[in-house]
Specification:
The protein is mostly helical. It is built from 8 helices and no strands.
Length: 194
């Protein structure tokens, strides 16, 4: 396990916590243009760690834990700050946090009772992507209203707002589908291993 920590893919996963710290601080300072940059880097690191793990044959038990943990920590931290700043509705935060809590609880149960680490599936990754894009658009819209992205986006912020509203409900649908997908896998695994 100690050797796995220093796999490049796992170091990239762990770097997400540093990027998240910077993104959270910038959000609290309402420096939305810079926060968008760090949120983009968080998303890029999520793509990169998976690619590196596969291409370098570094798929590990530690990686299966640290990657989704970094994702869930990032999403929950950002949505809570955005709620405090009144950038997203409370119901969206509740559903997002509840989704992650349910998946985490199921994963912990399988790990403790069945010694299985439940990996992310494509539905879960797609849900995280749509959540991340929705949050990015909400932050971008807030920055546009403040003129942080230049005059063009200030004058046309309604386009970003509309896209954000569409993504809000699209990501909600993806969250529901991903929970159902994980629940189905959970049931199949518990029946097979019992």
């Amino acid at each position: 396990m100690k050797k796995e920590i220093f796999y490049i893919s796992n170091l990239v996963s762990m770097s997400r916590f540093l990027l998240l710290g910077a993104a959270c601080w910038l959000l609290l300072e309402q420096q939305f243009h810079y926060a968008c940059l760090f949120i983009f880097l968080i998303w890029l690191s999520d793509l990169l760690d998976g690619y590196l793990a596969r291409s370098r044959n570094e798929i590990s038990e530690f990686g299966k834990i640290i990657d989704p943990l970094a994702d869930k920590t990032a999403v929950i931290s950002i949505v809570l700050i955005m709620l405090v700043l009144n950038l997203i509705p409370g119901w969206y935060v509740i559903i997002t946090v509840l989704r992650d809590a349910l998946i985490l609880a199921g994963g912990l149960y399988l790990n403790s009772k069945k010694n299985i680490v439940l990996q992310s599936n494509w539905m879960g990754k797609l849900a995280v992507f749509t959540i991340g894009f929705t949050l990015f658009l909400a932050i971008f819209a807030a920055g546009s209203r403040l003129g942080q992205f230049g005059n063009y986006f200030s004058y046309h912020s309604e386009i970003t707002e509309l896209l954000y509203r569409v993504m809000l409900f699209l990501s909600l649908g993806m969250m529901i589908l991903s929970v159902l997908s994980y629940f189905k896998r959970f049931l199949i695994i518990t029946k097979q291993k019992s």
